[in-house]
């Protein structure tokens, strides 16, 4: 046993430190020792050849050199010639290998551990380098113009005049994107001001400021297509479009670094600068309709309502879910405008006007409003920027792709309740090894599930069912689930919005038909069935149960409601969470109350 | 008669330990005495001896130290450790059993004994 291990820990430690010093600083001198040994050149060369190739510490070589030198000297002293000694020595190469092996066995345990650790670290570094080069060698070459897909509808019917130039001029003239429509509302409730409110005069004053814009919106809304072409970079918009949509934009410096891995190249980052303008325009139009009702101008009332629906149609021109949500919001303002006049000025509109509005509202298929092509285009565009392309729709993740995913989608690494190690690092690994084709196919599968669930009313397929099916599609994937989880549209949110829109539409159609019946017969019907066939072709269905919507009368006025997601008819009683504040339950929350659809009661705030 | 490599691999370390049991020796001294006392059977080249010694040292069977010899030259001297003595004792028993077994098989026991009798009497008996 070597001295190092025989004398306890402190002696061993001292020996280790000595070894480190001997082998770290300066030459060991074993070569010098051999040179100065006085032995013949052939003997020296033999000793050199043994030690030269042996992978030993300098101190070990020095020790062996001394021993071998002494051996030859002792032999010579005993009268054996150097030639004889060399013959008896044996194979130097074999000696080198055997000496090395046996010396390595004799090293302290800590050096063996250090050596093993060093080898492991080197292997990991080599592996990491290979992985890095693997990604570095891959380059994404985007080829598809997915923005053109999204802009497709904007170019449809290009021979026809489009609404955007009409809107644009008005928006520029009025610096419209800075317009604050809160001045149209009652401060305490946030609801649109009426003649009975203190804010009425100020609201009128504000509306008059934007009268020219309101007229331009009415004019533009009559045109079939909107026609704004979206760009990824603000600088690519025409000067007129920039003036209308980005009036206070300052071009960045010429040498400014692009934001994010891909700058403005990804359509997932495309802005929809016009949507806020649509919302504000609908507010002004609704107020003007209310004002026209007060003025007894039925024609202007209907004109404004038609304009709101036209703007909503324009908002939905892009096949993007956000655009659809804006369209729903704008159309809901149109439905509120109808409610304003029917509840505030029930005798204003004629039978023909009521019928026309009923046809207008019934003419929209809100299920068809929802188009997922834009979402798909965004994800496919992201994939083509982050994966290589093997020419067959497949490819591997690139270095830039990994950076992009973790910068574009901050939640990609780990969610709030997730374990960093298994989901963050594991997620990174799964994404890094994912196949472009697998991700694309998984996303298409998910959208297919989406489309199917959107076709069914709640009584056929509960929202909770959607969620389970959605989750099962995501969780079936392995490498793809990170993409799906973070980039897939919100199924519950879309479905809830759609159900709300369809239900509200049905209620307004029913309300209009009730007013028509009353106009014709002098009173509301005793039974809802009396509306068929003169005022209604079919009675509107409750989306939560497979029955006709419920109708009751309060103070002689109709109340239309759905029994809600629990399927229990509570008699049209709304949810009461705050004293003196009535709410309809948010169907996403799975509330237990009825859902009051006419007159409209705001959804419960989450 | 030189031993074949495989036989040397098994017998060599035992022979070395046997020599070191009585006194510490340095490398060339070991080579000389091994060859002499085994009547040339254990003629180890340095390329074999030193690796063998280092192996025995790594197993804790021998230990070494550097000291100056009578002529003032520094050499590395090897000696058997306590663990080595125990191992040597076991090896002796193994070899005695082997010799006895070979003799029982008809391999000339007297000739074997004669070869070892005056030198490395590993069986500890009638050499």
Write a structural description:
The complex is a heterodimer of chains A (606) and B (127). With 606 residues, chain A is mainly α. Chain A contains 25 helices and 7 strands. The N terminus of chain A is likely disordered. Chain B has 127 residues and is an alpha+beta fold. Helices cover 57% and strands 13% of the residues of chain B. Chain B contains 5 helices and 3 strands. In chain B, strands 1-3-2 form a 3-stranded antiparallel sheet. In chain B, β2 and β3 form a beta hairpin. In chain B, α4 runs antiparallel to α5. Chain B is globular and about 50 Å long. The two termini of chain B are 19 Å apart. The interface between A and B is medium-sized, with 32 and 31 residues.
Number of strands of chain A: 7
Largest sheet geometry of chain B: 3 strands, antiparallel
Shape of chain A: elongated
Low-confidence runs of at least 5 consecutive residues of chain A: 1-7, 411-415
Task: Give the N-to-C terminal Cα separation of chain A.
Answer: 76 Å
Tell me the series of helices and strands of chain B, N- to C-terminal. HEHHEEHH
**Estimated helix fraction of chain B:** 55-70%
Q: Give the neighbour order of strands across the main sheet of chain B.
A: 1-3-2
* Share of β-strand residues of chain A: under 5%
**Radius of gyration of chain B, taken over Cα atoms and rounded to an integer in Å:** 15 Å
């Amino acid at each position: 046993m070597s001295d190092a291990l025989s004398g306890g820990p402190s002696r061993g430690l001292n020996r280790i430190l000595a070894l480190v010093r001997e082998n770290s600083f300066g030459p060991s001198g074993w070569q010098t020792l051999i040179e100065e040994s006085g032995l013949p050149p052939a003997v020296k060369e033999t000793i050199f050849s043994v030690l030269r190739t042996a992978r030993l510490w300098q101190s070990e070589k020095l020790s062996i050199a001394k021993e071998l030198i002494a051996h030859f000297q002792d032999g010579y002293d005993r009268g054996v010639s150097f030639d004889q000694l060399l013959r008896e020595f044996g194979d130097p190469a074999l000696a080198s290998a055997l000496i090395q092996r046996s010396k390595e066995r004799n090293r302290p345990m800590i050096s063996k551990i250090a050596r093993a650790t060093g080898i492991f670290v080197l292997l990991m570094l080599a592996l990491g380098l290979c992985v890095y080069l693997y990604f570095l060698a891959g380059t994404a070459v985007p080829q598809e113009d997915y923005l053109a897909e999204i802009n497709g509808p904007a170019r449809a019917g290009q021979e026809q005049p489009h609404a955007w130039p009409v809107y644009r001029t008005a928006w520029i003239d009025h610096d419209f994107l800075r317009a604050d429509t809160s001045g149209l509302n009652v401060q305490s409730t946030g609801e649109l001001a009426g003649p009975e409110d203190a804010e009425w005069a100020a609201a009128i004053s504000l509306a008059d400021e934007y009268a020219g814009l309101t007229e331009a919106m009415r004019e533009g809304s009559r045109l079939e297509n909107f026609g704004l072409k979206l760009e990824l970079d603000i600088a690519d918009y025409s000067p007129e479009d920039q003036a209308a949509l980005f009036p206070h934009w300052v071009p960045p410096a010429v040498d400014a670094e692009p934001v994010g891995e891909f700058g403005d190249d990804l359509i997932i980052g495309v802005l929809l600068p016009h949507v806020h303008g649509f919302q504000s325009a609908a507010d002004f139009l609704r107020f003007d309709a209310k004002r026209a009702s007060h003025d007894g101008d039925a024609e202007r009332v209907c004109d404004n309502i038609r304009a709101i629906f036209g703007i909503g149609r324009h908002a939905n021109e892009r096949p993007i879910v956000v655009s659809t949500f804006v369209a729903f919001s704008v159309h809901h303002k149109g439905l509120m405008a109808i409610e304003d006049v029917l509840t505030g000025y029930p005798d204003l509109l004629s039978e023909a006007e009521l019928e026309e509005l009923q046809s207008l509202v019934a003419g929209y298929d809100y299920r068809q409003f929802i188009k997922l092509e834009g979402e798909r285009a965004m994800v496919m565009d992201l994939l083509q920027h982050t994966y290589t392309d093997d020419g067959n729709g497949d490819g591997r993740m690139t270095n830039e792709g990994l950076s992009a995913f973790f910068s574009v989608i901050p939640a990609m690494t780990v969610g709030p309740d997730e374990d960093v190690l298994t989901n963050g690092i594991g997620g990174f690994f799964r994404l890094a090894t994912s196949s472009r084709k697998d991700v694309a196919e998984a996303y298409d599968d998910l959208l297919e599930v989406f489309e199917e669930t959107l076709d069914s009313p709640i009584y056929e397929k509960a929202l909770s069912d959607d969620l389970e099916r959605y989750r099962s599609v995501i969780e079936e994937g392995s490498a793809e689930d990170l993409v799906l989880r973070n980039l897939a549209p919100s199924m519950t949110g879309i479905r809830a919005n759609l159900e709300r829109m369809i239900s509200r539409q049905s209620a307004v159609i029913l309300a209009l038909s009730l007013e028509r019946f009353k106009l014709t017969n002098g009173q509301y019907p005793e039974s809802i069935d009396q509306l068929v066939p003169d005022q209604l072709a079919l009675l509107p269905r409750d989306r939560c149960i497979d029955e006709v919507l419920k109708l009751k009368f309060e103070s002689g006025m109709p109340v239309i409601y759905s029994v809600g997601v629990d399927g229990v008819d509570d008699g049209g009683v709304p949810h009461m969470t705050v004293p003196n504040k009535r709410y309809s339950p948010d169907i996403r929350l799975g509330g237990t109350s009825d859902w009051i659809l006419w007159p409209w009661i705001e959804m419960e705030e989450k | 008669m030189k031993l074949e490599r495989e036989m040397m691999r098994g017998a060599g370390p035992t022979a070395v330990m046997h020599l070191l049991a009585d006194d510490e020796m340095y490398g060339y001294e070991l080579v000389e005495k091994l060859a002499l006392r085994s009547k040339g059977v254990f003629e180890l080249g340095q390329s074999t001896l030193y690796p063998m010694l280092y192996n025995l040292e790594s197993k804790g069977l021998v230990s070494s130290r550097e000291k100056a010899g009578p002529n003032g030259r520094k050499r590395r001297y090897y000696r058997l450790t306590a663990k080595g003595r125990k191992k040597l004792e076991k090896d002796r028993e193994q070899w005695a059993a082997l010799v006895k077994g070979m003799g029982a098989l008809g391999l000339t026991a007297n000739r074997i004994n004669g070869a070892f009798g005056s030198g490395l009497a590993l069986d500890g008996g009638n050499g």
